Hints:
Layout: H1 2-20, E1 29-30, H2 32-39, H3 43-55, E2 59-62, E3 66-69, H4 74-98, H5 101-116, H6 122-139, H7 143-163, H8 170-185, H9 189-221
Antiparallel strand pairs: 1-3, 2-3
Helix pairs in contact: 1-3, 2-3, 4-6, 4-7, 4-8, 4-9, 5-6, 5-8, 6-7, 6-8, 7-9, 8-9
Amino acid sequence: MELVRIDTQRAYAEIRDRITSLDLAPGVQVNEQQLAEDMDLGLSPVREALKLLAHENLIVITPRHGLYVADVNIPDLQQLSEMRLTLEALSARLAAERATPDDLAVLDALRREQVERSGADNRGLLDLDHRFHKAIAGAARNKYLAAALERLFGLSQRLWYLALPRLEGLPSAVGKHLDLVEAIRGGDADRAEETMREHVEQFYAQVQAILADRALEDAQVR
């Protein structure tokens, strides 16, 4: 039984990563057998993992046409940004009130890694941004908030990857992290909350503009 649970967790993590990184593109049909063979797993853990992903709105299960990767669109981005703006701001506020020296050491280490990262490596910078936000959520000491933010990240990530080839200014966007760390270090909850809100809002606005341009170009091609 324990092995089945471990296999389900592995299948869930791998399939989720393929979806969020667009290796499994939005709208594509999912072949359970092929996934199981690719991951060297049985069908049962793969099916259980797909049910979990359907609950997260990353997989669509239809009675007649099988399984599909959920589509993405700009209204989705708008709704996700509303949620993340509120929850990320709360996370930063709580982190400023509750962060320990160990939490601050982790945030400082991530900041140093960001400074050393090439400005052209947008995918790497996005990964670092995720780790940074996850560290702040950990410092907030609220497991339900952290879980909600992680789920929202998975849903948002596909939209970010769609915009990635045209995404500019990521190095300056993660530069906001320095202000966040200092606000959290100083216990300034108001400043941490406002800085996080600005950071998330600016990034989503840029992604939304890129996706709107893509949609317009696709419509013109048709």
